[in-house]
């Protein structure tokens, strides 16, 4: 009877997916509805040629299945493309939850969604091949790939448009011994290895033939890097030890030590100072050994050598497990591609404001593998002046300048940032600062006065952070451009081309920051949201639960993640080595 009831319920949920969605939202929000949505983001000679016009479908090759690549695929709706996805990873991983995977708060399969599940219902023709791209030939518009299976078969793929979304690798800063002895935390496999190693360390410390010194070393956990990933992992590990493992390994519970190393003076430098101070104080209260201003110089299989940056004092730390989380570096295949297109001297692939790789016509780069090379206002200041000077008088009135300001702000985002930073509401405020009282529209500026008025604007230029939020917005933006390519080619909607005639086809990419979280353990999270709003504590933890559940890519993973959280609350974390 119970089996028939189970089968009947299962069939009902399969046939009516909205019921499962309601159940998950109800569980996440404690019976209420939690709403969270991302705002819609408005969104020299070239080495390659633009695709020829025609009715045949254009082939779009997407390299990578991370945040940028999946966001692009999910938002691409124009059926006039044949899309080929190439990646050695046949799933998308919700990387912000990887620290939770390392200790069993969330299971690995709960945070991954197969690529084929994501694209199977689209009206765009999308195919996936499990392979790794090892070379990009921009001139002949080909990518060279190697299959991920044992035979490592190689093949070549032609493209009309190429989307590079390969992410980045861990940056070891050429520190000796890191690759051989440290764990990373970028992939699901990394999190699974860390989980097994943590349990290994505890099991090893309980063996009868271990000396006291060997037990202490086995239970010394070192985290290198005080950014969001390193801090969250240290907090998760502390909770795992204090809430679960001390009950299972009571004989060695007093030997456990967690050390967090950070080369700068504070952890979480990208967050508000209030969050940084709270996090440091909480770690001290929790007994986490926080060592700032200290860099790693060498790693062996048993100890880590460090140096205090200010004093030069050196020391060693014995360890049982070390996790390296200090930043990212460019992948070798992308570095080779950069040499082809004249970007060999750069540390990361450069694109323009429309995410097109500089020096190419048909290659786009998103996410951690690229950065936007924002053009400076002062580089185009003469062209801007000429375009705004509609009567060719050699001077600009305030009215002429005001008419051009929208296009300037659209083309150069640092202009709006400058206005905001100076608490200026209009162009008149800028001119007052440089020339004095210009309230009347009859006041005119020559080119030198115009340069003086905008001379400080470029000081507001900032590189975007390498985060999932940036990558997802870039993927959505580029998909929107591909969806409306034909429409915007006929009717351009972008800003004026100050050095050429006409307008750009699209508005440049604009990143909209929606806030960031820093889970600190003990069911406490720090949240920094737009508008300089900071919240720290248990209420922010529930906001974190709600947001991270809502941002899952499917209702399947959303259900699994929520059920994992509930299981942990009821039964604790699992300590088996599976």
Automatic annotation (TrEMBL):
<keyword id="KW-0560">Oxidoreductase</keyword>
<keyword id="KW-0285">Flavoprotein</keyword>
<comment type="similarity">
    <text>Belongs to the NADH dehydrogenase family.</text>
</comment>
<keyword id="KW-0520">NAD</keyword>
<keyword id="KW-0274">FAD</keyword>
<keyword id="KW-0106">Calcium</keyword>
<keyword id="KW-0496">Mitochondrion</keyword>
<dbReference type="InterPro" id="IPR011992">
    <property type="entry name" value="EF-hand-dom_pair"/>
</dbReference>
<dbReference type="InterPro" id="IPR023753">
    <property type="entry name" value="FAD/NAD-binding_dom"/>
</dbReference>
<keyword id="KW-0472">Membrane</keyword>
<dbReference type="GO" id="GO:0005509">
    <property type="term" value="F:calcium ion binding"/>
</dbReference>
<keyword id="KW-0576">Peroxisome</keyword>
<keyword id="KW-0809">Transit peptide</keyword>
<dbReference type="GO" id="GO:0005743">
    <property type="term" value="C:mitochondrial inner membrane"/>
</dbReference>
<dbReference type="Pfam" id="PF22366">
    <property type="entry name" value="NDH2_C"/>
</dbReference>
<dbReference type="Pfam" id="PF07992">
    <property type="entry name" value="Pyr_redox_2"/>
</dbReference>
<keyword id="KW-0999">Mitochondrion inner membrane</keyword>
<dbReference type="InterPro" id="IPR054585">
    <property type="entry name" value="NDH2-like_C"/>
</dbReference>
<dbReference type="GO" id="GO:0050136">
    <property type="term" value="F:NADH dehydrogenase (quinone) (non-electrogenic) activity"/>
</dbReference>
<dbReference type="InterPro" id="IPR002048">
    <property type="entry name" value="EF_hand_dom"/>
</dbReference>
<dbReference type="InterPro" id="IPR036188">
    <property type="entry name" value="FAD/NAD-bd_sf"/>
</dbReference>
<dbReference type="InterPro" id="IPR045024">
    <property type="entry name" value="NDH-2"/>
</dbReference>
<keyword id="KW-0521">NADP</keyword>
<dbReference type="InterPro" id="IPR018247">
    <property type="entry name" value="EF_Hand_1_Ca_BS"/>
</dbReference>
<protein>
    <recommendedName>
        <fullName>External alternative NAD(P)H-ubiquinone oxidoreductase B1, mitochondrial</fullName>
        <ecNumber>1.6.5.9</ecNumber>
    </recommendedName>
</protein>
<dbReference type="Pfam" id="PF00036">
    <property type="entry name" value="EF-hand_1"/>
</dbReference>
<feature type="domain" description="EF-hand">
    <location>
        <begin position="376"/>
        <end position="411"/>
    </location>
</feature>
<keyword id="KW-0479">Metal-binding</keyword>
<dbReference type="GO" id="GO:0005777">
    <property type="term" value="C:peroxisome"/>
</dbReference>
